[in-house]
Amino acid sequence: MARRVILAGFMGSGKTAVGKALAAATGMDFVDTDSLAEDRMGISIAQAFARRGEPYFRAVEEEVVSEALAREAQGGGAVISLGGGAVTSERVSRLLADEPAVVLLEVDTDTAFERSRGGGRPLARDRAEFGKLHDSRRELYRRVAKLTVDTEGREVKDIVAEIGTFLERLEG
Q1: What angle is formed at CA 46 by the lines to CA 83 and CA 56, rounded to 5 degrees?
Q2: Number of other CB atoms surrounding residue 169 within 10 Å
Q3: Which residues pair with 149 in a beta bridge?
Q4: In this structure, are residues 112 and 64 in contact, taking their beta carbons and an 8 Å threshold?
Q5: Could you tell me which CATH number the domain at 4-171 has?
Q6: Which residues of 9-19 are buried (b: 16+ CB within 10 A; e: fewer)?
Q7: How confident is the model at residue 44 (pLDDT cuts 50, 70, 90)?
Q8: d(CA 164, CA 117)
Q9: Where do the structural domains in the chain lie, given as residue ranges?
Q10: What are the tens digits of pLDDT across the range 62-88?
């Protein structure tokens, strides 16, 4: 089994739900880089955007993602869930290029918007802008992904099973 699995994808793609389930199924730790960023900043992501701006948040995000990727996996490994914008960092994208188990969780824009709006996500307020942002990041996600999983209309357990098969092939 891979020492770590990195989940990438747009907000609302299911990275947290799938990440927790995958970690439980594999005995790995679950690391949510959005939570790490909030811990580092001492405020929520929404508050960081409002008080300090998106560039401040992106700098903190880049730091915590880089640290999470550099850290040796504890015990049985780690499932690392990246924030939706982490791949916009050239540094993070370079680090992901060398990772064998980067999984892109793809989601339809409408589904992502429905899951994300009202949840305190500063970039999920305007549907048109949300769609443009989603479109602009698609290629960034695809460049780093070693496996792409369509999450649309699927149960978390089925997504976890697909990722598990991929991980078995990596070890094979």
Answers
A1: 70
A2: 9
A3: 105
A4: no
A5: 3.40.50.300
A6: bbbbbbbebbb
A7: very high
A8: 30
A9: 4-171
A10: 999 999 988 754 445 899 999 999 999
